[in-house]
Amino acid sequence: MTDTKFNRRAALAGGAAAFVTLATPGILRAQADGARRNVSSFVTQNWQDHFDTLGSGAIVCDTTSRALHYWNSDATDYRVYPTSVPMTDDLTRTGYTKIVRKKVGPDWTPTSNMKAANPDLPDYMPPGPGNPLGTHAMYLTWPAYLIHGTHDTRKIGRKSSSGCIGLYNAKIEELFAVTPIGTQVRII
Among this protein's residues, is 61 annotated catalytic? Predict the structure, then answer.
């Protein structure tokens, strides 16, 4: 009886080890553009690596792993959200900024560069389902750069924006509620 239990246990352990060995290459495999396409690709961030203090809170937008990291003022609340990121390096602005304004139901006016690239864009779009800023927007000190929602859920996890950081509408609503104006932001 003891030999049977031992053999069963050994077989289960061996099978589990074989499964992990077979599954690991798929988990670790990167795409040609260097980005990984699964939740396990989020790189853990520490706020101390980016800021001297938390102040009223901190956000790190990691454009490589396509994740936004949020910490409240005393680091008791740490959240990670999947994001969309700028389509090209030319559209990606990196560095330090902060949240200067927040708006529920943002309206949208495309930049002159957006209009030049796509003349079919409207000159102005009011809040609503067709608006690319989704349901909530947090404006940064950099003109035309925002952290906002999107009605097009296919964009999340992709290089799909013209410079902004996009979140699912439900996630931007959650982040919007806990993020005060003045929150420091770093985009890497």
Answer: no
What pTM was estimated for this model as a whole? 0.77
Element at 58 (helix H, strand E): strand 58-62
Instruction: Compute CA distances 56 → 7, 52, 59, 166, 181, whole Å.
Output: 57, 12, 10, 22, 8
- Residue 148 appears among annotated catalytic residues: yes
pLDDT digits (tens, 9 = 90+) for 152-165: 999 999 999 989 99
Q: Which two tokens stand for residue 25?
A: 């290459």
- Number of Cβ within a 10 Å radius of residue 53: 10
Partners of 60 in the β-ladder? 69, 186
Nearest to 159 by CA among 37, 39, 42: 37
- Residue 160 to residues 45, 47, 63, 89, 154, Cα–Cα distance (Å): 23, 26, 11, 12, 9
Catalytic-labelled residue, pool 50, 136, 148, 151: 148
